[in-house]
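Title: Prediction job returns without error message
Component: structure pipeline
Severity: low
Priority: P3
Assignee: unassigned

Description:
Job completed but the reporter wants confirmation the result is attached to the right record. Sequence as submitted:
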Amino acid sequence: MNGRAVAPLYVALAAFALALATPPGDPDTYWHLASGKWMVDHGALLRTDVFSSTVNGQPYSVGEWLGEIVLYVAYLAGGWTGLVILRGLLVAVAAFFLTRVALRGGAPVIVAVPVSCAALLLSEIVWTDRPHLFTLALFPLLLDLLFTARAGRIGVLLAVPPLLLVWTNLHGGYALGLALVGIFTLDALLTRRNWAAFAITASTAFAASLVDPGSLGLGAAAAHATAPPRFIVEESPPDVTRPAGFVFAAFIIGTFALALRGGGTLLDLMLLAPLLWLGMSAQRQMPYFAFAAVPYIATALPRAWPPLERWLARRRPYPRAAIVGFGAGVVAMAVVGLAFVPNAPNERAYPTAALDAVRSGSGVLLNEYDWGGYLIWRAPERPVFVDGRLFPFLPDVFADWREAVELGPRWKDVLDRYKVAQVLLRPDRALVSALREQGWRVVTEDALAVLLERPR
């Protein structure tokens, strides 16, 4: 048994097991599920808002209609457990192809696997039950296809346009895929190797990306990636004091150190430079720089560090028993993970105690931004003020929401203009204190949330 051949499978199984360990709980999961449910129930794409009181009926798209339907089908098939298993499968796909890419160029298994695992651990920040998971899986898959084609197996390029067609409708991260295809095409033109095949593939892939009934469009996807909304944590720049930011910084330092020591190719530069810029612009983009850096680090590290290269040259092949034993271990991890898959979401961060009162209430409800998706799913009777879809609420509604919640000069005007009847916020919000003083009635309250009602 060859360790190189089974390493991608082993890493994929281990990643699958780890990805099953966390219950759902991301606020965006709920509105994605609700969107998928609406489309399945109505047999049509969701093109206008049906969940809010503020932009109801207005056209919008987040460009992830197919991803939302897949998420909801997974939920129909297995409930919350089905969602977690889908997450595990997509993370496993990412792990499998990332390890394959890391082993290209003759990188030793003992170097390629740890580097791949480090990048996967960094990517854990986006292991949430949203369409973003499809980009996490498809990015390394496409990278593997392009490296395979660059090595001479041009036939695999036939899979690229269909892949981009599906990716376009799964998640807006398909813009990253088009960028990868463009970079490899430019490399082929500069090196005069199979440039015609790459150019045809790039043109066809671009045409395929235009087949997007969800109507987000390449321009909107690219604009969101290049100018993310900074008030959202995952869209803020990396924070090196946090584990993910620290690992990201380690990848940057390692890549630069190896480049100074041993250089690299033009393709390395064309791949890593824009992805580094993207990763520096928003935390959720950090994994893609690490993924692209994995093959470079795995092949460059032994060459740049002679003691490691000499040690690797003296090493004997892994014994068959060790390979089989390690494989049995990761299979056991996957089986145990499946045996203990969470069957319910973690809703400790949501106003569960207030749900009954919210459902039985009436009028316009002003809610916490992070609770919007939860309320869409758990209390569909009450349209939300804002939620994690964000796009429909920018710029006016979101600005009004912040004006009210942060007790800006026009907060009373906002509540009157939208005819807000109830407010569901964290107790420490400035608006809550002001409304108590104004005589708003407390309907229900605990340490997490307070529901206030306008005096009649």
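Comment from assignee: result matches the submitted record. Residues 150 and 193 are 8 Å apart (CA to CA).
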